[in-house]
């Protein structure tokens, strides 16, 4: 049985209402322009929602237009640029299915025909109204014999067409739904890529945020192997609006949640989610991942990824991305500020001032120039702090587990012990790996100089809090700044509890080391782009748990992405299948790490469905997907 597709023009096939565009051209320079345009828009919506008779709306709009034949060519030029994005992507569909695609519109043939024939739609499959002109080329009305000039016109046209097969209507207006209401269509798809009309969506059999959704539903090959609107994104912890916007513009269905979620909540919420976005708080445990039935990628919209069970994610074929440098500078600037504030005892003095006490004295207040700064963890933040600190006169020492290049005049120390014994100011910038729990405890505090300044902007669990507290109370630590805590409130509404509250010269901040507008904006841009690259091309550059592969753009081929356990013989099995099916390989890329293998194969577009089934069925396959 044939499937016929009936497609609306205005706001469906094109992103705009052609009459609105025509108005802005024809009313150009006329005094009544603004008022007439507003009224035209109002009449269009009233008509679309089925609130006034179509013919009345059309008549009144045409009268307001002052349109002439000479306005049509510029209108057509503008409309050509306004073909809906997903229609532009799927030109192949219009060519292949030309026999069964019809455009039925209450707009006018004069501008519809040049646009839709360019897509490959047949001229005799276009049904629309026709303009009437006077001798001077002025639009004076429309042909009233045309059924499309009146209510119920679309249904009448379909009835007359007497198509032998299933009929699917794709449109954004009430008049499109009417075809289904008249019993003349199998399904009405409310097309919401350009406009979403609540009233129309309620009546629809199916909401189609893009043409791909319709094609996917009808098992027709489209520009994407999977409609993007079916990719559900869950963003927690107030991800920057730029990030939300990028993911929405990509066509994904995005749900946002301002706070973190605990394990139980996330284990529920994660079902059906393809992309998860979090910041430092949300723990993505193996229990959460067990329920992650559709998860492809996790974006950590921050630097640290210790909150994610990276290994469990990898074993399930879930790629994790972060923003390794986007908030580095912000943390460094806070550290510098705090070093100065603590060395001058400003925090306590400010509190006293607010209580009405004036304590002008130099006692215990020092310059930072020439003091020894000890940085533990000389990664991106530690190294950047080294450079900035040195430029304002600090003498920098550092210790890192790994061999790191000393920047500027910084001195590398070979042991933590040596660093703790040397520094006047200690700043912690290690990552949050589990082995770093209590890396600084009683024994380490004991090694420090009396009157040391101690700063932790890394992770809460790396410092033994009771030991820190007693060393502040004893005066061993003269000043302390802590931005991160073993237990942090889930949201701004929850109370903050810590043994460190109320201690002298102790700056406590609510994990805001990386929370500057610049950093959040940078992160909001960086992470979605890595994720979209991964989803669209398979590129894993910057992934923290996947073998990193930067792939060329896919050209005239299908890309098969195979993620498997790294056991011997898998590549051989994959390639045996290609040989068996006589597949021409356009390119193959492979990278493995200890646990998984990541193989990308670009192949010619023609191949049997069995190949896909057999590739999926290879033992130790974790995930498999096709891109085109
Ligand atoms: N407070 C905040 O808002 C922010 C906190 N952070 C935290 O800062 C951490 C560091 O960030 P980056 O410098 O970008 O990471 P990074 O990975 O570039 O550097 C971490 C360095 O610490 C070293 N390291 C790890 N454990 C160590 C140990 N026990 N002793 C000595 N060295 C050790 C590593 O070898 C590495 O060089 C992040 O992992 C994150 O937890 C990051 C951004 C913002
Ligand atoms: O970047 C990091 O690792 C941070 O700790 C910052 O985390 P946040 O995004 O502020 O929750």
Automatic annotation (TrEMBL):
It is an enzyme of class 1 (oxidoreductase). GO terms for molecular function: (S)-2-hydroxyglutarate dehydrogenase activity; NAD binding; phosphoglycerate dehydrogenase activity. It catalyses: (2R)-3-phosphoglycerate + NAD(+) = 3-phosphooxypyruvate + NADH + H(+); (R)-2-hydroxyglutarate + NAD(+) = 2-oxoglutarate + NADH + H(+). The keyword NAD applies. InterPro entries: ACT-like_dom_sf, ACT_dom, AHAS_small-like_ACT, D-iso_2-hydroxyacid_DH_PdxB, D-isomer_2_OHA_DH_cat_dom, D-isomer_DH_CS, D-isomer_DH_CS1, D-isomer_DH_NAD-bd. Transmembrane segments: none annotated. Keywords: NAD, Oxidoreductase. Residues 559-628 form the ACT domain. Its EC number is 1.1.1.399, 1.1.1.95. GO terms for biological process: L-serine biosynthetic process. The keyword NAD applies. Pathway: Amino-acid biosynthesis; L-serine biosynthesis; L-serine from 3-phospho-D-glycerate: step 1/3. Belongs to the D-isomer specific 2-hydroxyacid dehydrogenase family. Catalyzes the reversible oxidation of 3-phospho-D-glycerate to 3-phosphonooxypyruvate, the first step of the phosphorylated L-serine biosynthesis pathway. Also catalyzes the reversible oxidation of 2-hydroxyglutarate to 2-oxoglutarate. This is D-3-phosphoglycerate dehydrogenase. It comes from Marivirga salinarum. The gene is serA.
């Amino acid at each position: 049985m044939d499937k016929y597709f009936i497609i609306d023009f205005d706001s469906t096939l094109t992103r705009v209402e052609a009459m609105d565009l025509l108005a802005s051209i024809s009313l150009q320079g006329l005094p009544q322009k603004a008022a007439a345009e507003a009224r035209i828009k109002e009449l269009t919506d009233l008509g679309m929602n089925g609130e006034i008779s179509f013919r009345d709306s059309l008549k009144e709009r045409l009268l307001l237009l002052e349109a002439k034949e000479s306005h049509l060519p510029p209108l057509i030029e503008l409309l050509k640029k306004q073909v809906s994005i997903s229609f532009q992507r799927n030109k192949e569909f219009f060519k292949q299915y030309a026999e069964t695609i019809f455009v039925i519109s209450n707009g006018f043939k004069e501008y519809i025909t040049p646009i839709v024939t360019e897509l490959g739609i047949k001229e005799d499959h276009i049904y629309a109204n026709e303009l009437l002109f006077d001798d001077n080329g002025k639009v004076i009305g429309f042909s009233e014999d045309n059924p499309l000039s009146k209510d119920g016109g679309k249904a009448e046209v379909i009835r007359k067409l007497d198509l032998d097969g299933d009929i699917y209507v794709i449109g954004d207006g009430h008049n499109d739904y009417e075809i289904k209401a008249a019993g003349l269509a199998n399904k009405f798809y409310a097309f919401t890529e350009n406009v979403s009309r609540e009233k129309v969506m309620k009546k629809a059999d199916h909401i189609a945020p893009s043409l791909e959704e319709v094609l996917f539903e009808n098992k027709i090959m489209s520009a994407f192997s999977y409609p993007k609107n079916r990719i559900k994104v869950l963003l927690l912890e107030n991800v920057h609006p730029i990030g939300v916007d990028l993911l929405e513009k990509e066509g994904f269905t995005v749900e946002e949640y301002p706070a973190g979620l605990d394990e139980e909540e996330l284990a529920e919420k994660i079902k059906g989610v393809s992309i998860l976005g979090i910041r430092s708080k949300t723990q993505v445990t193996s229990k959460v991942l067990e329920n992650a039935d559709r998860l492809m990628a996790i974006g950590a919209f921050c630097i640290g990824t210790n909150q994610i069970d990276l290994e469990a994610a990898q074993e399930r074929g879930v790629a994790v991305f972060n923003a390794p440098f986007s908030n580095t500078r912000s943390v460094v600037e806070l550290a510098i500020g705090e070093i100065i504030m603590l060395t001058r005892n400003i925090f306590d003095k400010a509190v006293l001032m607010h209580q009405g006490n004036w304590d002008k004295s130099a006692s215990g207040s020092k310059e930072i120039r020439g003091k020894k700064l000890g940085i533990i963890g000389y990664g991106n933040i530690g190294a950047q702090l080294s450079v900035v600190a040195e430029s304002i006169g600090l003498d920098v020492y550092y210790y890192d587990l790994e061999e790191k290049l000393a920047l500027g005049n910084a001195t590398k120390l070979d042991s933590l012990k040596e660093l703790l014994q040397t520094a006047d100011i200690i700043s912690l910038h290690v990552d949050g790996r589990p082995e770093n729990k209590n890396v600084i405890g009683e024994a380490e505090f004991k090694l420090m100089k009396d009157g040391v300044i101690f700063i932790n902007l890394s992770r809460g669990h790396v410092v033994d809090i009771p030991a820190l507290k007693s060393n502040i109370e004893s005066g061993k630590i003269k000043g302390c700044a802590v931005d991160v805590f073993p237990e942090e409130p889930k949201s701004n509404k929850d109370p903050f509890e810590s043994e460190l509250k109320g201690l002298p010269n102790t700056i406590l901040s609510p994990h805001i080391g990386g929370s500057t507008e610049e950093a959040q904006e940078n992160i909001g841009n960086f992470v979605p782009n890595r994720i979209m690259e991964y989803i669209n091309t398979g590129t894993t550059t910057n992934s923290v748990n996947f073998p990193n592969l930067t792939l060329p753009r896919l050209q005239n081929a299908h890309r098969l992405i195979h993620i498997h356990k790294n056991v011997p013989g898998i590549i051989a099995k994959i390639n045996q299948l290609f040989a068996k099916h006589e597949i021409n390989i356009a390119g193959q890329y492979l990278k493995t790490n200890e646990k998984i293998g990541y193989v990308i194969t670009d192949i010619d577009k023609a191949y049997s469905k069995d190949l896909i089934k057999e590739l999926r069925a290879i033992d130790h396959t974790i995930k498999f997907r096709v891109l085109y």
